[in-house]
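Lab notebook page, bench 4
Experiment: in silico fold of construct C2
Operator: M.H.
Input chain length: 564 residues
Purpose: comparison with the prior construct
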Amino acid sequence: MAFDGNFVHALCNELETIQSGKINKIQQMDDTSLIFKIRSRGKNHQLLISAHPMYARFHLTDHKYEFPFDPPMFSRVLRKHIEGGIIDSIQQVGNDRQVHIKINAKNEIGDDITRILILEIMGKHSNIIITDTDYKIIEGIKHLTPNNNVRTIMPGFQYEKPPTDKKLNPRTDELNELPKHLDFNSGKINRQILMAIEGFSPLFIKEVAHQAGHLTMQNIVASIQQTLLKARDITPVLYKKDKDVFYFTQLEHMEGTPEVYDSLSALLDDYYHNRFQNNLIRQKAQDYVHVIDREYERVERKIDKLKEDLKEAEVKDEYQKYGELITAYMHEIKRYDKEAVVFDYYTNEEITIPLDPEIAPNDNAQRYYRKYNKLKVRETTAREQLDKAYSDREYFLNLLHQMDAITTSDEVEEIREELVEEGILKFKSSNKKKKKNKIQLHEFKTSNGLTVLVGKNNKQNDYLTSKKAQNNHLWFHTKDIPGSHVVITHTPGEIEDQDILEAAMIAAFHSKAGSSESVPVDYTDIKHVHKISGAKPGFVTYTDQNTVFVTPVENDIDKMKVTK
């Protein structure tokens, strides 16, 4: 990616479409991001502004977002000051990733006011700040207190620019001074340019160097000017690499054919949306991950304790034998003996049995019988509890795998509901009636056009296997590996070997072995799959299965996925 000063310059020009537009509504979706609903030139627009530490940006968006029921403080301040206002201008500061949006509005008593919305797109230091025309801070989405040794972002304080080194603006005559700031003999010329020029990224400097062939003191200024001139041809592009790269114009030094977008906003919307949404979902899911981790660790400790109990119970048979031998040789043992040396008819050897001299021989025998019975009960209980603990451990491992695969807020809610139903989370009552979401399964199509449905959590798995699928549908699951339930929703006569292999690949991909090779996948008719009575959600047994070994390939799986 390269959301640099050059990109911001092009984006500000593109956003002229919303200048003179009216801000009808302001909504804040989380601690860092807002949506402005704007009416401009007869059309409705959504301007997304984010100060997220990883996904800071601003652009028009067509996506719908969820908003909290109780609006955060920053959005309430913005509504008070600029909702209903008109966007007067959108101006970049120099060639930097800073933008000032001037908005004309009215205050509570109807007087005209002007407010400036300041966007600072600076990675983890990104911020959104509203000030008056004297740059006195009204509010910031992130506060910096007076004792932070940098600057203060708090209501009532004077706004100060971010404390960055003075750099040359390449869109002014300042660029001619660049050679004075460079030492061509010290090397790392690209790094030196980056430190001297405002708003340049390593990506853009690589393009300058590529177009120049070789940068020298004599051609450096002209090369930058020429590259900036060519970059006036705005062509939003995305280069699909191991790490995707986007820019506002085509780059000659990049290999491959890029994906071209109609606008910079469309490019950013596509690039950031899934990443941003997944991050929001991860944040929502994180509390539940901690709960599941805690329960998993508790079960692990329980398993260790139960194994210790079984180890200690191994001596129970010895105690039973002591009791039998004391009873058999009772006539030879005296009242105050501390031990009994008798012949062990189990091993045909002499054995020494410790005794309590304070009690009679018969009582010593009964004492060993009691120890035997106590350990026998302890062993039986430990074995029963150990089987349950192993099952619980498998359940929590499966849940952790499902949390890794979460892609929607509904899936987070389904996990939460399950944790409440299982008594792992306490139910929080609310006066507000919550709409129950319909369970959404994930759909794929084989190369022969057959539908394959996938459940990505226990609620989806139970629904798919127990309610949605029919008895003669084919069911898939990785063998002895946590994963999704997968069903080809067609009759056996329609299913070919290729369909079975592709459905098995889908099952392998949606399992804990998703990045492994030769993953074993079992498949059988739904009629042979049965819910285990009293078992945790998602647990089933099955019979009459066949097994295939497949290697899931993500690109092949993506091609089969049906997008809705």
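Observations: The chain is about 35% helix and 20% strand. The chain has a mean pLDDT of 91.
Next step: discuss at group meeting.
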